[in-house]
Design goal:
The protein has 3 helices and no strands. It has helices at about 1-25, 70-75, 80-130. The longest helix has about 50 residues, at about 80-130.
Length: about 130
Amino acid sequence: MEALLTKLLAIVSVLAIVSSLRYAVRMFKLPDYSSLKFPTIDFPTIDFPKIDFPKIDFPALDFSSLDVNALRDRLASVDTAKLTEAVRDAAYIAIGLGVTSIERAQARREQFTAIVTDGLDKARGLLRTSV
């Protein structure tokens, strides 16, 4: 039963990632701008080795008071199974929120496109009737 749940969780996580990527690719299709000519800007060259930057002196870190054995004891008491489960759940939630956000952005983009297209069609109709 546990092996089946592990396989199911792996499939769900792969589906969530693929779904996120699919919506991201659908959302960010850019038009073809190959015919546009952008202006070029000539920036002056800067010789960085000749610039005298101020020297920064970082203070030395003192780890002599750090009790490594106490830290090791605290880490040994952590239940790694529960920690792994919590991190996995957080990852699934993050992926789900990402997918939901992308889907909402896609829906709003489609609504905006429909509103703009409708407005342009009405404007064209007004222009045709007035000319």
